What we know:
It is built from 3 helices and 6 strands; from the N terminus they run E-E-E-E-E-H-H-E-H. It is α+β, with helices and mostly antiparallel strands. The chain has a 6-stranded mixed beta sheet with strand order 5-2-1-3-4-6.
Amino acid sequence: MVIRHVGSEYLLDPHRAASAGRSDVVGSLTIHLTITKETKSFLLPDARLGFEYRQSFTVADHREPPLRSWPLSVIAPDGSVALSLVKTAAADPDALWWERVWRKPPGTYRVWCAATIAGEIALGSLIGMLIAVAGFGVWLSARLGVYGARAGARKCIACGYPIEKGTDRCPECGGLRPVWRNVGTKRE
């Protein structure tokens, strides 16, 4: 990208290549980005939760040596790049992201994609809740099946011990045989 001198400002123009014939081009800035590691989503196979990237940059001043001075010394004391963008590029959301990248000093950074993480948590919570409800339904139907079979066979629904005719208490555990389970059996 070229550094242009417009009025009293020095601006980065990402849309124009460096050309020696233009009088307003006074330098160039080269950003080197290398993605070093990606964190993939477990539930959404095509989604990216985050990534690490390594950033560095070089600044070249195309002016004559007597004219080289600040603001083309764009590297701040903390190592960050502090140049403004041209107004047409700043309206683009991608250009705003690049501006944030430029303002960071060289090094390795980790970026998390918040929307993807929120989607993964929501999807994981929904799947977990559905598994829990389905598991509870299977357990409940199995227990009701066992209780119904025991009650129909005139057994104690708690322990399965046979209950004799005429008594409503289990001689083994002392539990009551529920009357509502005796559907389809003869009452005595």
